[in-house]
Amino acid sequence: MDSTQSQEYSIDIPDELLHPTSRTMFCHWESIRGESTVAKKSDLNLRPIKKILPSVFILQRNPLRQEYSWRLAGTGICKIWGRELTNDDFFRDWQDFEKQTLALSFDAVTGILQPCITRVRAANMLGEEVGFEILALPVLDNKSGNIQILGTIASFRQPEWMGFVELEHFELAALRRIWTDAVPSDTFAAKRRPAVTCRTNSKNFLRVIDGGRD
Q1: Lower CB count within 10 Å: N or C terminus of the chain?
Q2: Averaged pLDDT, 191-201
Q3: Under 8 Å between Cβ of 135 and 25
Q4: How far apart (Å, rounded) are the C-alpha atoms in residues 108 and 101?
């Protein structure tokens, strides 16, 4: 038996990932990417994350414009937004500052292959608010060769109106980047950790990006 098969690796989950759903997805992404910078979509195993599938999404960047469309949106995410999202424009109802700021962060996920974590306050047409956390991770689409964004969106509470009234106003509360180790010689390698132990007492991997409305 290969000696590497008996090795165990621990994954430090950044403390800034507040929602348990974000932590579960980050741990799974880390386990399938192994020593590579980016995980391959073909390596995704839905069984370990079946409980959070309603919160899972995939975004595709427009190759000509700074636009992102929903390629996949779980039922839990559609409930938060109050409508069906698949194939729609992610930033359809976002204001200019929030759109430009988060789009630049998404560009870093697809460009330099570094994840980001975002917390958002959103409101419906009645002014009722809900907060949620967005984890964005780079993933290689094997068929197209493009880098897509895989992640989760999970709300911190579920008010009674959620699922019946659409969100129409979004405001960024926090936006941070997660720096992960890369293997320069083999960026898209499929070297995976045979066994993974997640832990949450990690160092601060994130850098705060200051900013706000004028």
Answers
A1: C
A2: 44
A3: yes
A4: 11
DSSP-derived secondary structure for 130-158? EEEEEEEEEEE-TTT--EEEEEEEEES--
pTM for the structure as a whole = 0.81
C-alpha 159: how far from chain center: 23
The secondary structure of residue 14, as a DSSP letter, is: P
Which amino acid is located at 74 in the chain? G
Task: State the pLDDT at residue 63.
Answer: 86
Q: How far apart are CA 104 and CA 28, in angstroms?
A: 25
In angstroms, the CA 199 to CA 208 distance is 22
pLDDT at residue 2 in the model: 41
Which pLDDT band holds residue 10 (cuts at 50, 70, 90)? Answer: low
* Closest to 155 measured CA to CA, from 128, 172, 130: 130
Question: Please, what CATH class does the domain formed by 20-208 belong to?
Answer: alpha beta
Q: Output the CA–CA distances (angstroms, integers) from residue 172 to 12, 36, 156, in the order listed.
A: 26, 30, 15
Is residue 143 classed exposed, middle or buried when 0-12, 13-18 and 19+ CB atoms within 10 A define those classes? Answer: exposed
E strands, 68-214, where? Answer: 68-73, 116-124, 129-140, 147-155, 167-178, 196-199, 206-208
